[in-house]
Amino acid sequence: MKKLIMMVLIAFLMACAPAQYKPFEAPKVEFEKTATYVLDLSKLKKPEKPNYIVLDKDMKPVTAENPGEAKFLAFTEDEFKKIMALSAAYNDQTKLLKDHEDLVNTYIDEINALKELIVIKDQIIAQYKELYAMSENAYRMERYEHKWSRAESKIVQVIMTAGLVLLML
Fold first, then answer.
1. Where along the chain do its domains lie?
2. Model confidence, pTM
């Protein structure tokens, strides 16, 4: 019987304890960093091999049998203009594509920074929720303890009043 009374008393006290506050848990958002952009210059059209004339030191054409005598390469005027135009175009394309690569990588860096910002924001929200839950639990516990201390003081006042009334009789 004593055990049953103790169990009922413990169950009553446990039922009176404030419930723990549990905040809503939002799904965690995770991102993978976007890889940097690497430009493939192998697809660029390179200038064709020019048609040239091999000359020796006396400015006479060298035949294929005597390649060791070659000292100079000569181009026709049209061939030289074509080579210079192709070279300039290739250099301009290379500069443009490098600038394009830098621009795309800047955009990718911006995307990665925004992803990091979202992760940091989620961390801040989680910390805020944790602090709010801690303060809410502390507030509930304080209210619970204060309620019992008020009840105890009222019981003590009733007992003291009853005791004084009994003493006066």
1. 2-46+82-168
2. 0.46
